[in-house]
């Protein structure tokens, strides 16, 4: 299923200084592309590179870990209580890390979870969901669904309000967040928001942004195909809405959405397309674009303010959705 798009030399003239600096760091390291090695090698390389991208860890009210029973095995959760979050009845966010369903873990997105916890004064739950190719689709979806059910069923124990739970994620985590929003609609467990950072919404990988930004902008089209091919069981999975939520028959009734788009990203067009479909389905959407930035910029907090600003924008949208819901319930 791997694609080989035709590309021209990348035009970097419109990039933000933060993106240019990060790309320069990557050229200096000159590490092999993930797709030339094994998933385990990719995981090690990814973790080893985090210190060059992410800033100092922001203090939060508390960080704890616990293990719950999962669909396949025990699931490890990291729970952040933000500064200013109430001890009981707090708003809650289920954060799903990115990494192409193959790499990433609780440490790789610790910085982002801390930001969300403090900025929103909420409780963030981050699961160490199963990764591919050891655990192919739908393992990650099943794990995330189990964690959402756990949060809603054990809200009092967690000190959260079961009716004020949102979901968020970046890249492949954004994919899982969109899928979980659709699942929650079917399960009649409504979410207050879905906060999507450059989400993957179409595993067909045929959008024009795969051609425009195929090489030279960090995440390449061939790497993304490698991730996808490790995740799916076969070609039929690509058309399954739980892999490609853009292909869902209807988006009516899903949670209000914040969608952050990086302007120089192979996932740009499918993120835009998903936001448009949500709007056409009558779902409240806040769409914000960072034209000069590249895929993964929210995980690059050491090199610019845009990383934290995107989380601030997501929280502002979430609060706006909450206010609108409260007003509707009062009317």
UniProtKB/TrEMBL annotation:
Annotated protein name in UniProt: Alpha/beta hydrolase
InterPro entries: AB_hydrolase_3 (IPR013094), AB_hydrolase_fold (IPR029058), GDXG_lipolytic_enzyme (IPR050300), Lipase_GDXG_HIS_AS (IPR002168), Lipase_GDXG_put_SER_AS (IPR033140)
A GO MF label: hydrolase activity
Highest taxon of source: Bacteria
Gene3D superfamilies per UniProt: alpha/beta hydrolase (3.40.50.1820)
Catalytic residues, chain numbering: 171
Ranges for domain Alpha/beta hydrolase fold-3: 93-298
Stored SUPFAM superfamilies: alpha/beta-Hydrolases
Keywords, ordered alphabetically: Hydrolase
Taxonomic lineage of the native organism: Bacteria, Pseudomonadati, Pseudomonadota, Alphaproteobacteria, Hyphomicrobiales
Family: Belongs to the 'GDXG' lipolytic enzyme family.
